[in-house]
Amino acid sequence: xxxxxxxxxxxxxxxxxxxxxxxxxxxxxxxxxxxxxxxxxxxxxxxxxxxxxxxxxxxxxxxxxxxxxxxxxxxxxxxxxxxxxxxxxxxxxxxxxxxxxxxxxxxxxxxxxx
Amino acid sequence: xxxxxxxxxxxxxxxxxxxxxxxxxxxxxxxxxxxxxxxxxxxxxxxxxxxxxxxxxxxxxxxxxxxxxxxxxxxxxxxxxxxxxxxxxxxxxxxxxxxxxxxxxxxxxxxxx
Lengths: 114, 113
Prior knowledge:
Chain A has about 110 residues and is mostly beta strands. In chain A, about 0% of the residues lie in helices and about 55% in strands. Chain A has strands at about 5, 10-15, 20-25, 30-40, 45-50, 55-60, 60-65, 70-75, 85-95, 105, 110-114. In chain A, the strands form two sheets. In chain A, strands 2, 4, 5, 9, 10 and 11 form a six-stranded mixed sheet that branches. Chain A has a five-stranded antiparallel sheet with strand order 1-3-8-7-6, with no helix packed on it. In chain A, strand 7 and strand 8 (about 70-75) form a beta hairpin. Chain A is globular, with a radius of gyration of 14 Å. The model of chain A has no long low-confidence stretch (mean pLDDT about 90). Chain B has one domain: Immunoglobulins (Immunoglobulin-like). In chain B, a hairpin with a 5-residue loop joins strand 4 (about 30-35) and strand 5 (about 45-50). Chain B is globular. The termini of chain B are far apart. Classes of the chains: A mainly beta (about 110), B mainly beta (about 110). The interface of A and B includes residues 51 and 100 of A.
């Protein structure tokens, strides 16, 4: 079964606000995590990744936080824009399994209101 | 310029037919994947190939047969299509399998009538 899940299936924010998308994972052996963004009618697009030896990583307007104690991953988007509206997936790879396999969470739909 | 491309983008067919979806990547990656995304947007890996060798086969019905003629191509052939095969199929590639980022194609929307 899937070990990655999301607390909220939908998130609606106002343009300019910060967004936080959460993801819970159950496999403590996971060592690599990725956030993907999927716009309507397109394939998932890489946003940011983090390895288990880190607890925070920042990109352009995005930050990923990893809390291994509670097996929680979050994606923070600063100054959310209408173009950020999409479904966001977290994915994990666990060190004990196939290194080629990512397990995806269920996805969160982010809607940005102008 | 497209990194991972798939054809066709849309595929509408009758139950019982056989169809193929093609995928090509020009990134020089060694590993390629097929995923199925259902109507609830859930993404599930089906197959993975590394340098033309099958690495992952996630208990997919044997009506689905991947073929990798070279490491830049991974095609998916589906026999005896069923209604439940309707989904979006994504191809992806990564430089290797060792914790590398996977890059996805635009998807093939398959509708079985």
